[in-house]
């Protein structure tokens, strides 16, 4: 009886509007107008990568008219493929991909194309055919990144200029195998070794672009008694690790062992100034404004460049000043 009375009273209250569903929050007009961008990022393995992510966040911000969704793939391609499929399912307006390695993207990018979602590639190449300028498939709208073989050539030519006929015994710390940053920089060193018979490749391993692995590899080389006088590190974070290993062994980096590196992060340029790194090749990560410009062109119905190679330079102690370091964007 009591339950019936309670139910009766509830019905009365509802009829009087006391339990109407909360009014749906009207969609925020500005939120609706934001351009939604799904960004599949390699990971957070290096200073370079983190600067790249910050650049994308600063450019593709809500105040600039964007809603940026970032997926960190932890350097695993499979996670990137899943992320892209999720972006397609979410119906984002654009997809930006910073690919881990060059191969294996055709299927998922064809799915994005079928869904009518433009794809912008940044940083590394997605297919060696791109390196030849061949437009390859049409599964991407625009590519913005670096010429990694040109970076490698700058480092090798500096070694040739600095050391002439002196014998070089080289440790080669590579980036992630199959990434175009590793492919390009390695190709240049290979050609340098072919050109210079007085150069010897003492050891070569992948340090995955990380500081920890760079230190681990050089500690192992030292423990095994390898004799080397150059470390060719394919990014600054591996160079940092190598330098720690040398210092811990009482070896002076930049003097007893020549250090060549890539990225030219501000932290590394300080080490060029203090002599621990001898030569550092810029690899510019600040792609956010470049991606923003491409999307804004597309929004206006314009056609952006298919390939944009970013301008980059290199640094040694002779060319570097504190003013240059302080002016750097990353
Ligand atoms: C290069 C970029 C590389 C950097 C590393 O464009 O892909 O990946 O050289 C980063 O620091 O991890």
Q: What is the typical, i.e. mean, pLDDT?
A: 91
Structure class: alpha/beta
For this structure, the quaternary state is single chain
Question: Mind summarizing the main beta sheet?
Answer: 6 strands, parallel
Write up this protein.
This protein is α/β, with parallel strands linked by helices. The protein folds into 2 domains: 32-145 and 285-311, Rossmann fold (3-Layer(aba) Sandwich), CATH 3.40.50; 148-283, 3-Layer(aba) Sandwich (Rossmann fold), CATH 3.40.50. It is built from 13 helices and 12 strands. It has helices at residues 2-15, 29-33, 47-59, 77-90, 106-114, 128-131, 148-163, 180-195, 211-223, 236-248, 266-273, 288-299, 322-327; strands at 35-41, 66-72, 94-97, 119-123, 142-145, 168-174, 199-206, 230-233, 258-263, 279-282, 307-309, 314-316. Strands 2-1-3-4-5-11 form a 6-stranded parallel β-sheet, with helices on both faces. The protein has a 6-stranded mixed β-sheet with strand order 7-6-8-9-10-12, with helices on both faces. Helix 3 runs parallel beside helix 12 (288-299) and helix 4 packs parallel to helix 5 (106-114). Mean pLDDT is 91; it is low at 14-26. Beta-D-galactofuranose (GZL) binds next to helix 3 and strand 9.
């Amino acid at each position: 009886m009591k339950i019936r009375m309670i139910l009766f009273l509830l019905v009365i209250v509802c009829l009087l509007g006391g339990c109407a569903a909360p009014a749906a929050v009207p969609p925020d007009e500005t939120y609706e107008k934001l351009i939604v961008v799904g960004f599949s990022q390699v990971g957070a393995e290096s200073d370079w990568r983190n600067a790249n992510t910050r650049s994308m966040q600063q450019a593709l911000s809500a105040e600039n008219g964007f809603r940026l969704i970032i997926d960190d793939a932890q350097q695993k391609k499979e996670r990137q493929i899943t992320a892209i499929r999720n972006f397609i399912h979410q119906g984002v307006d654009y997809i930006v991909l910073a690919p881990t390695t060059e191969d294996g993207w055709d299927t998922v990018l064809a799915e994005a194309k079928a869904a009518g979602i433009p794809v912008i590639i940044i940083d590394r190449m997605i297919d060696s055919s791109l390196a030849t300028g061949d437009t390859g498939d049409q599964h991407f709208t625009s590519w913005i990144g670096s010429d990694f073989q040109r970076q490698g050539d700058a480092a090798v030519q500096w070694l040739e200029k600095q050391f002439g006929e002196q014998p070089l015994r080289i440790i080669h710390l590579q980036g992630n195998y199959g990434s175009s940053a590793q492919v390009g920089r390695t190709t240049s060193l290979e050609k340098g070794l072919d050109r210079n018979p007085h150069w010897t490749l003492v050891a070569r391993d992948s340090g995955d672009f990380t500081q920890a692995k760079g230190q681990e590899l050089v500690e192992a080389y030292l423990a095994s008694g390898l004799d080397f006088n150059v470390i060719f590190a394919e990014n600054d974070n591996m160079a940092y690790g190598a330098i720690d290993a040398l210092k811990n062994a009482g070896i002076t980096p930049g003097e007893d062992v020549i250090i060549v590196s890539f990225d030219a992060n501000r932290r590394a340029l300080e080490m060029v100034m203090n002599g621990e790194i001898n030569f550092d090749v810029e690899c510019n990560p600040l792609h956010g404004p470049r991606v923003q410009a491409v999307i804004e062109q597309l929004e206006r119905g314009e056609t952006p460049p298919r390939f944009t190679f970013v301008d980059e330079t290199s640094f040694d102690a002779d060319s570097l000043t504190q003013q240059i370091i302080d002016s750097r964007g990353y």
